[in-house]
Design goal:
alpha+beta, 5 helices
Length: 222
């Protein structure tokens, strides 16, 4: 595992990608009118998210069970949320709906109904055919600037995994892990995962995931 170069944060505003289904919508109106839909809010625009594919759904389910088991077996009183839980990093940031976000016990973020006000510890985005720019550029910049400690991009289209960890300068280090090797999380410090497990068919089932996590946390579960 090594630190590689990462994309440079863009200083100039960029037009949000995706289909705009409404404009001039306040964030308060967005929370009231659109939360039952797969959408995000960016500068008054409501953006329709890409449809969920079979592989996207499978990876999301796998990660949910993995993270939930890790928190449970590790006796960590954290929370794992799936989309469409809205995340608002700051007062002037977009209202995003990450595929997965994790809030650890010491995190001061507020969980209020269908939104999180504050900065999750770890965010995962699973790339859909229409979300490459959104996940790799727009959200990368927002999450880095907002202070998300760890960001995973799982791309089933390209069969690529990208892992970023926030350094002391507030920038993301790209933790490069070749196929066949293992990634170790910084936020969940005992979580170690093979980077090519996401392309396995079928993905590990609930029992296999539980056994994986117990092996990671062997000292805590004995």
């Amino acid at each position: 595992m090594m630190v590689a170069d990462h994309p440079k944060t863009m200083d100039t505003p960029i037009t949000p990608s995706g289909e705009i289904i409404a404009e001039d919508v306040s964030y308060a109106d967005f929370l009231e009118q659109f939360l039952d839909q797969a959408v995000e809010w960016v500068d008054g625009k409501v953006i329709q998210l890409s449809p969920i594919t079979r592989s996207h759904n499978a990876i999301s389910g796998f990660l949910l069970v993995l993270f939930e088991n890790y928190l449970a077996y590790g006796k960590i009183a954290g929370h794992t949320f799936l989309a469409p839980m809205v995340m608002k990093l700051s007062a002037d940031s977009p209202g995003r709906s990450p595929d997965i976000q994790i809030i650890l016990p010491e995190n001061p973020a507020k969980i209020e109904g269908s939104q999180i006000s504050g900065v999750p510890d770890l965010v995962v985005e699973i790339v859909s055919p229409g979300s490459h720019r959104r996940d790799r550029v727009e959200k990368f910049n927002e999450y880095e600037k907002g202070g998300v400690k760890e960001y995973w991009i799982i791309d089933p289209v390209r069969k690529e995994t990208l892992f970023y960890q926030l350094n002391e300068s507030g920038e993301y280090d790209h933790i490069f892990v070749p196929n066949g090797e293992y990634y170790q999380s910084k936020v969940l410090d005992k979580l170690v995962i093979a980077v090519d497990i996401f392309w396995q068919e079928p993905l590990p089932n609930a029992l296999e995931i539980a056994e994986m996590v117990q092996a990671m946390l062997k000292d805590e579960t004995e």
